[in-house]
């Protein structure tokens, strides 16, 4: 498993660990906030990034606090956040490091589950003869990038509000689709809870994909949707969709 160190990695691991033997979890250090901000400014412009930062402040100081009850409700029956055994974790500076490549070659996994990492380079993907399978919180290729479930709702596109399990290539959520599923959103849900609902759908889809690898039955599909890359909403975008369309 190649992953970032956040709660969603823990949820995915616990969701599949009883069905499959996960010999090693390689967890990369997060990219520094300073570097991330610089990259976003270069790509999106200063005004857009300031709006995104304002929204993140709103999330951390208000939205997360008022959503804790709903998160506990979602997790109670469907998601397990028990800490991962540290003995199977190896920390690396980057998923694209030479250390990562050596670990993959050493362990020779049948499949590599990818979760919450930066874009993986071709030499890492080509270092072993095994599929790399990722969970994306959106229906690709229409909602590539960040927060695909939220953006689908802002587009009044609930029939494409869901999650994708796909093969990893060197693009941003452009790999061949293995499985997709939709989420059901209720009035208690918002921007914070959509990923938890997507995780509930994603875990059984990931199990199917891993079983397909085990039985040499891996098949890809194409939904013929248009392709678009989405980024974090700004505070004003969130307020606009909240007021005009009731999207929380």
In words, what does this structure look like?
With 248 residues, the chain is an alpha/beta fold. The chain has one domain (32-82, 119-245): Rossmann fold. 44% of the residues lie in helices and 15% in strands. It has eight helices and nine strands. The chain has helices at 7-16, 33-44, 46-78, 98-107, 122-125, 148-154, 194-214, 235-245, and strands spanning 2-4, 25-28, 89-92, 112-115, 132-136, 144-145, 162-167, 177-182, 229-230. The strands form two sheets. It has a seven-stranded mixed sheet, sandwiched between helices. A two-stranded parallel sheet has the order 6-9. Helix 1 (7-16) crosses helix 7, helix 2 (33-44) packs across helix 3 (46-78) and helix 3 crosses helix 8. 34% of the residues are buried. The mean pLDDT is 95.
